[in-house]
Specification:
heterodimer; A: 117 residues; B: 13 helices; 83% helix
């Protein structure tokens, strides 16, 4: 498990180094994720340590996210006039995204099937 | 006594306690979406801080190292992405195209709606990542200058809205193919949607994970580039 943590940290560090060296707009951890993905594709399998290590971390995510989410209750007056926009984006935006993507994917896969027939 | 209240020990005990209690509550309620641990646990933490008259910034400093783990957790997402890749084989074209178009739509529709209702620039920046998994959303929002707190809340609430409405919505639309059902839920509602998709079927769950990974990767690349382009 610790060897898995080491791999994750090493790839993040590599991502951060690349981000600074090349002055990339992407966040370091995201670059690290792509590097690890490339490494896995070349290797053709996921090492056991990495599997357990990353699963432990992914299981912990709700706990890690609870802390920043709590900050929402303390946004105070400066955010008071932002709620309508926030709520509209979350509710209507999400419903629209579900409908829109389902229509697109439905249409694309149907078109593809017809081509194959 | 007060120095104990101001210690990382107390802050961490509070965070873990809120986690344990909210997880139990969530499972007891039959996974009722509004009680999702991240939302209900956050409310518990906030309530405790108010009752104890503690400052949220001080609390953040005490549990700062917990947030550090979000970095390696983001890197760890490479593993599910790699694992789900085989699903692309049959319908790679439609799925990738839907990721690009649907992922952009998720971001742009949020921006347009928030802007219409008078949101300021910082709120807009914090809403760009509402449909992507939280570690990526945090990394991206931090990079482009949004409010992490707002970004996390938008991600969680997006997931809640999606899983509460998806059944009814997709029935109306006549979406029955589990692959489409899962993929679109994962695209719109990341990990929260994915756990809901697994409740429908393993196929829906797998396609939802694939969409979660693809949308996260796509957004992580495009949003910072777009933000940089608009800023100059």
């Amino acid at each position: 498990m610790l060897a898995g943590f080491f791999t994750l940290l090493a790839f993040q560090l590599l991502g951060e180094v690349l981000q600074r060296l090349l002055d990339l707009p992407l966040p370091g951890p995201v670059i690290g994720m792509f590097l690890l993905f490339g490494y896995l594709c070349i290797r053709g399998e996921v090492p056991k340590d990495l599997e357990t290590g990353s699963q432990r971390l992914i299981d912990l995510l709700p706990l890690l996210l609870m802390v920043p989410a709590a900050g929402m209750f303390f946004l105070g007056d400066q955010f008071a006039d932002q709620w309508p926009g926030f709520i509209a984006a979350i509710s209507l935006g999400t419903l629209a995204t579900l409908v829109f993507s389902a229509l697109i994917l439905g249409w694309l896969s149907k078109r593809r099937q017809e081509k194959h027939d | 006594m007060t120095e104990l209240l101001n210690s990382p020990l107390f802050a961490l005990t509070l965070a873990l306690g809120a986690y344990v209690v909210s997880l139990k509550l969530y499972l007891r309620s039959g996974r009722f979406a509004l009680l999702h641990p991240t939302a209900s646990g956050a409310a518990l933490i906030a309530l405790a801080l108010v009752l104890l008259d503690r400052d949220i910034t001080a609390f953040y400093q005490d549990v700062n190292w917990l947030l550090f783990l979000l970095g390696p957790a983001t890197v760890a997402l490479a593993i599910p992405l790699y694992r789900q890749l085989h699903l692309l084989r049959d319908i790679a074209g439609p799925l990738l195209l839907t990721t690009v178009i649907g992922g952009s739509f998720a971001c742009l529709s949020a921006l347009a709606l928030a802007w219409l209702f008078g949101a300021n620039q910082q709120t807009l920046l914090s809403l760009t990542t509402k449909s992507v998994t939280t570690p990526i959303a945090i990394a991206v929002t931090e990079g482009i200058g949004g409010l992490i707190t707002v970004a996390v809340a938008s991600v969680i609430l997006t997931g809640v809205v999606a899983i509460v409405t998806v059944e009814w919505l997709f029935k109306k639309l006549g979406v029955e193919d589990d692959r489409i059902w899962g993929f679109c839920l994962g695209l719109a509602a990341h990990a929260i949607g994915t756990s809901r998709a697994f409740e429908r079927s393993p196929v829906a769950g797998a396609f939802s994970s694939l969409a979660l990974c693809l949308t996260g990767a796509f957004t992580a690349v495009v949003v910072p580039l777009a933000a940089q382009w608009f800023a100059t």
